[in-house]
Design goal:
With 83 residues, the chain is mainly alpha-helical. Helices cover 70% and strands 0% of the residues.
Length: 83
């Protein structure tokens, strides 16, 4: 029981040290570059053509799945390939 507590404390110490190291590194980057790693200006929405293409491809996939299930439901006689 005592060993588990010591191991848990060691893990907590290492976690704290890692968090401090990350904070120190991010502060150093901010000091050297003068800008935060993520700013409010970093978000750029996707172009409209990409959104339209994504919706069109999603519709094709859904139509394919519906046709596949319909083919299964009609035991292969829907398209007449397995007469």
């Amino acid at each position: 029981m005592e060993e588990e507590r010591k191991e848990f404390e060691q893990v907590e110490d290492l976690t704290g040290q890692a968090a401090e190291a990350v904070n120190d590194a991010s502060e150093e980057v901010e000091e050297t570059e003068g800008a935060p790693l993520l700013s409010d200006d970093s978000y750029h929405p996707r172009p409209t053509w990409q959104k339209v293409l994504a919706w069109a491809l999603l519709a094709i996939v859904i139509a394919g799945i519906v046709l596949w299930y319909l083919e299964i439901a009609t035991a292969g006689s829907l398209f007449g390939l397995l007469d």
